[in-house]
Design goal:
Blueprint: E1 3-11, E2 19-28, H1 32-46, H2 61-76, E3 80-87, H3 92-96, H4 98-115, E4 120-126, H5 135-147, E5 155-162, H6 168-188, H7 196-208, E6 217-218, E7 224-229, E8 239-240, H8 253-261
Parallel strand pairs: 1-4, 3-7, 4-5, 6-8
Antiparallel strand pairs: 1-2, 2-3
């Protein structure tokens, strides 16, 4: 049976954000070394210091291009990205117990992601603060219980929480998850305070998917999937097919500096 590793991250869970997103980056184990080499190369070209993080996309064309270049590479590779973008207000469980609600959506996303591949999965989650020390064990048990009810041979063989600075998979998941959540956040409030570099990166990512904005959900897609949750938010504002456009150009330093003084937003 094929073996895969899922790298998982989240964005937007803090108070003040109208939505949060959990993202899973699924990498075949036999592609892991090639993946790390390419992400390292993209990282070096970007000029971003330290580990790759969405919060560091703040003030350069290189940081903007980092995001779209990671997406382009993943879309061309045997990897896949799956996310659940949750609107907090209509998600009743969130107001009752936000931690329990969060892990409920985590389990649902893991089930959906793993069910699409008949494979043994190792899941690595960026370190989280939780009230229960054995949360990762519970997640593994619940996900495998749900998978056992489906017509799939997929299983989660291991689920751990690890430090993102040691894993390019977690760092790439951070970038894509952060971009998706910030794009969705702009749908709720287009005047949200956000660095210009982030807005431009979101635009580049959306254009690479063949979209004008990054606030849509997707048709069921094995390569790149955004699932709006709960059901009331499905297809709001629209459900879109992913039609990758690899011709989207990188942003030059001159273009970025011009936009700083002539903003589009």
């Amino acid at each position: 049976m094929p073996k895969m590793t899922i790298f998982a991250d989240e964005s937007g869970t803090s108070a003040g954000s109208p939505c949060y997103t959990i993202g899973l980056l699924n990498i075949p184990n036999n592609f892991h070394d090639e993946f790390n080499n390419e992400i390292e190369s993209i990282h070096k070209r970007s000029g971003m210091q330290g580990e790759i993080k969405w919060e560091k996309v703040r003030k350069s064309a290189g940081q903007i291009n980092l995001c779209s270049n990671i997406l382009k590479f993943i879309l061309k590779s045997p990897c896949s990205f799956h996310s659940i973008a949750v609107s907090k207000k209509p998600y009743r469980k969130w107001s009752e117990d936000s931690e329990k609600a969060f892990f409920t959506t985590y389990d649902l996303l893991l089930k959906r992601c793993c069910a699409g591949f008949d494979a043994e999965h190792k899941v690595i989650i960026d370190q989280l603060s939780t009230s229960y020390s054995k949360q990762s064990e519970v997640m593994q048990i619940i996900t495998n219980h749900m998978l056992a009810k489906l017509p799939t041979s997929s299983t989660v063989e291991q689920l751990t929480m690890e430090n993102s600075k040691f894993e390019y998979g977690l760092q790439a998941a951070d970038i894509l998850t952060g971009a998706v959540n910030s794009g969705y956040q702009l749908f709720f409030n287009d005047s949200t305070q956000m660095q210009l570099a982030k807005k431009l990166a979101i635009e580049k990512v959306a254009n690479t998917l063949g979209w004008d904005k990054l606030h849509y959900d997707t048709m069921p897609n094995i390569d790149f999937n955004i699932w709006h949750f709960p059901i009331e938010t499905r297809a709001v504002p629209a459900t879109m097919k992913v039609i990758p456009d690899f011709s989207i150009s990188e942003m030059t330093r001159e273009e970025y500096e011009y936009l700083l003084t002539h903003p589009k937003w």
